[in-house]
Amino acid sequence: MSVTDPAAPGPRTAFAPNRLGRLGWIALVVYVIYAGSQLGFSAERFSSGLEHGHRFLVRMFPPSFARWELIYDGILESLQIAVIATFFGILMSLPVGLMAARNLMPAWISWPMRGVIALCRSFHPIIVAILFVKAIGFGALAGVMALVVASVGFISKLFAEAIEEISLKQVEAVRATGAGFLSILIMGVQPQVLPRFIGFATYQLDSNLRNSTMVGIVGGGGIGAALFTAYQRFDFDVVLAILIVIVSLIMVAEIVSGWARRVFQ
Amino acid sequence: MQVQVSSSASAPAHGDDARALVLRGLRKEYRAGQPVLRGIDLVLPGSGLTAIIGPSGTGKSTLIRCINRLVQPTSGEILFRGQDLAKLSGRSLRSARRRIGMVFQEYNLVERLTVMENLLCGRLGYVSAWRAWLRRFPPQDIARAFDLLDAVGLPGFATRRADALSGGQRQRVGIARAIMQEPDIILADEPTSSLDPKTSVEIMEILNRFAVERSIPVIVNIHNVELARRFASRIVGMTGGLVVYDGAPQGLTEADLKTIYGGENWME
Amino acid sequence: MTVATQLERDWQRFTPLKRLSRFAFYLFAALALVISLRTIDVIPEFLYDAPDQMTDLFKRMWPPDPSYIRPTLQGLIETLHIATLGTIIAIGLAVPIGLLAARNVTPNFALNLFAKFVFVTSRSINSLVWALLFVAIFGPGPLAGTLAIAFRSIGFTGKLFAEAMEEANAGSIEALTAAGASRSSTLLLGYWPQIRPAFWSIALFRWDINIRESAVLGIVGAGGVGVALDTALNLLYWDQVAVVLIAIFAVVVLAEIVVTSVRARLL
Fold this sequence. Notes:
C: mainly alpha
């Protein structure tokens, strides 16, 4: 067999082995095992857990709606919290998101605004709710304020990103007609971002509804309190009843969101 | 670079035309020391269609955009109807802009709005933001919009969304939008570069027709010399940031074209 | 101008039907808002008092207590493990179910529905509630937290994953099937290269969210830095609370940076 030409590039392989990729997958498996051991996973915990789980599930069925007035009041309050928080959250997100858009605003406005948005987003609404409860007392107000912060964080960020992705050429054409700043926003920017904005707003309504059912656990009003009390009393059948109501409510909200998106398409 | 500005003997005298656009010493440097416009002195006539030709990157687009200040000139004067456009800002700039219509290479319609709404954008310099938001434009504007749609050959298109139109149709809407402003001058930045040859001719015909019928001067950036020769009543040739030809289309010789585009094979 | 042409020339922004549905929606939204505002049980004094109370709270948080840094960091590491492991488990489960949910991969309507139902259930139950459930089953600790994160994330990642699969270009899949490729080959070589960027994007996105969620689970006993937070809160040691909050903020910002740079490199 003849010796290959030293100038040739070497044996021809069709697929270069993806060393980095394979290393990545191995690292993943190693991590899973490591983290699992750190967190105390073990076979016997699993099996005893499954036994517990079985007993637990048995106690949940059938769901008990015996205290339905309590559930009704709680769900109503959660709804109120979600609606009000979404409304004010959207309202505040409009100027905040606009000011955070780097293509429309100078840096000395957009960067501080982005910082504010990052702050709003960093903490889980539950944590924010705890702080508000400790500051201004138990009840729905703390829940509303916590969810307004969460809404502003979420909607403004996505709104700013949507604005940064618009075609500035369309805006330039509107500017060339002699329109003022507001008119440019209305006819040049808004038509480009509105559908996406409606998307985030409805998503946030959903999210606020989910969270409003939980802030009660830490004192922020709504059905979370009833849920937690039933849980601590081991009344798991009541817990299941409440969960069923919550899930149904969220499904209804998703239908409303779908309607909103279609109307404003 | 010292260049010979050649003008045709039959150039009409337009120095005292009250509707002319006068550029004096217009310079633009995007980066310091690298001027794109090296001091343009030009009198653009106040009637008819003027074509600006030249190779890419020579500053044609910058020149046009300096006029309505979409690009800020580094120095120089832009005199139009008794005002120096280069010095305006804020309210007065907006006022001036509404009298200047612009047609873009990529049409720049607001895609998600209907044709009618895009036309009404032409009136944004004249209505408040509130009315714009509620879409309560004066009925004369709406009537004018319908008439313009007929004039550009798009009757019945008012409620179609802009992104449902073909390129040629979009450009007609773009032209109609500019005319909606009832402008004193129309600037067109390579209006035919994104269109096929047949549609390009149609668009140039529309522009020319408006220029003549409504006595509005139209300044067109164009890189297709044939179209320029066919439709323009005046041609300005640029190269390297300077004007090298300013005269009637008939006077444009091969030698001039070589100067503008450089080299024997300027058509390749 | 004839009456007919005059009528045609009346420009309406919206068709009557659209206007009606927009109006109906505005009405509904306005009613919901007004009713909520009027019936919500808020004591006005609390509202006016709020700014003062908040400033008082912040004063008590400053300066943060350095002795609490160690327990906080230990909790944080546990939180990171919970978030990462939970996300990995979730994706491991979401991918097969997502394949069931994608209409172009699994044309069986019943299976699609089943998979979608699994996702909706997973998403509708808050991670905190999942945590409560798993604490009841497995006892307090990070195991419950990890499973809670995992089960909550299945719905989110699975739904987006299935949508990405459905948006895959049918042409290349067709070509592979026509060449006689098996199911698994089509999946690996036809779908996977197309949805890979979307997959990583979804995974990173959910991991980012899960870090925030994991930090809170400790409040109900499911491990992580939330436990440290809960202890400090119950004792009203606000300066210790401040340490935990700052730590959480720092981790979230770091995670954000990691995610953005990985995204920039991958996509």
